[in-house]
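Formate--tetrahydrofolate ligase
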Amino acid sequence: MPYDATKMADWQIAEEAEKNMPTPGEWRERLGLEKDEIIPYGRICKLDFMKIIDRLKDRPNGKYINVTAITPTPLGEGKTTTTIGLVEGLGKRGKNVGCAIRQPSGGPTFNIKGTAAGGGNALAIPMTEFSLGLTGDLNDIMNAHNLAMVALTSRMQHERNYDDAELAKRNLRRLNIDPTRVEMGWTIDFCAQALRNIIIGIGGRMDGYMMQSKFQIAVSSELMAILAVANDLKDLRERIGKIIVAYDMKGNPVTTSDLEVAGAMTAFMRNTINPTLISTVEYQPVLVHAGPFANIAIGQSSIIADRIGLKMFDYHVTESGFAADIGFEKFWNVKCRMSGLVPNVSVIVATIRALKMHGGGPKVVPGRPIPEEYTRENLPLLEKGIENLIHHIGIVKKAGINPVVCINSFYTDTPEEIKLVRRLVEQAGARCAVSEHWLKGGEGALELADAVIDACNDPVDFKFLYPLEMPLRQRVEIIAKEVYGADGVVWTPEAEAKAKMIEENPAYRDFATMMVKTHLSLSHNPDAKGVPKGWVLPVRDVLIFAGAKFLCPMTGTISLMPGTSSDPAFRRIDVDVNTGKVIGLF
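Tokens:
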């Protein structure tokens, strides 16, 4: 029986479900794992990826299901909730099923978005561990990232203080690092706008090298991107060694290998390659691995989690961040290209409220009551907003996949509104299912599960949007026009000069294109809702992630360090000193 989600908060549902959550030993028996393939961490565990993938390497892959969405409101439209609900629905149909989701960042958790564990009866547990660091992957990433900056800044101090002879005595060679071309900054997993631009090294000659520096949120670190795309520990180590930390006075890259810190960074991250295993409230397996943002990074759980999920489960569900123009586009043209894996189907999550927003409804602001236009029937507003959904259906179809649209049902949705969405979706050539997983768990997701099972039997003519040999500026042009619906692209002189340099350098020819764009619109302008017309995409810079092998065109005014709001979630979080339980987190 599902819990009464109308009367119980998520934490109360989680607390009840966690009483019977499988132990690491029970998971080992259920999933057919060997004793040394499971690594207990209290009441959760990690899976030893390398041992499992080696043992199961000859087992055929299961069905590969991607979950994406329409352009969301700032509140999100329940993509993780739908991912968990779909797994529960497939479980109710007797399928061997599991999923992979991203690890949540402390930034949103303690700010305005809250945890990313789903909700209601479509919830991942244990919620406290999931929301507060799990098995320490984020801490390992932050330590490894900041160690690179320690290596850089200490080397800069020593090169300033010592001549070449003294450096040689210390077994150091002069790198001649340009202090105005330091690419990396420091990282912390909070939304800390005060750290976007800082000065370090204030003091005497032994207090470091004084220069301008910066912080970024941990999930935007190149190390997080590397974890998401690495295939194994060897691949992880090689990629970490290629990270460009700065440039020298002649414009040559200075890497973590040049600083002789890549090995130590990998030592910090050695355990991060193993996904964490948690549970749905209906006790299906959930793999948690990597947590990069989708608007400023790849926005996917890891290739590693998908590789073992496809071996362990007959149906493996993986989630892409934000909407199809960002998350699915990167899943399609980056993650699948790097992994060699081909999806069977993509689920597009939509809500009536988000469609009404795209039809011209009032602004939705986190922390404020939802305007009444979103809780009463308004068919003209809804029909206008469905243009955004149809656009996202078209994006998925360009990959050669027949999508399934999931109407993530709210109690305020009316039968006529649902009927309208279903009719227009089917006219667009896609399946449509209504799902009540938040309210009813797996029982409420049976229609969605059946549609996905049916879609998994469709032939897939999977194809990338562009060949990897295509020059960077042409790739950006085709993404802007074919995915976002722009009329073209305009480059700042600095960005175009950098793009030309990249195109002329053979070292970058097989790098992936990782667009950096707002998630709140198909365009670069977060206030442009629906399907904007008559606009061009501005590119102001291109970031080079040599370890991840990403070229990141920067559009709009995206920041790698979000800010904390005036009413952040941490104001309501505490610990019950009598029980030790975290309260106010959800």
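The CA atoms of residues 495 and 541 lie 4 Å apart.
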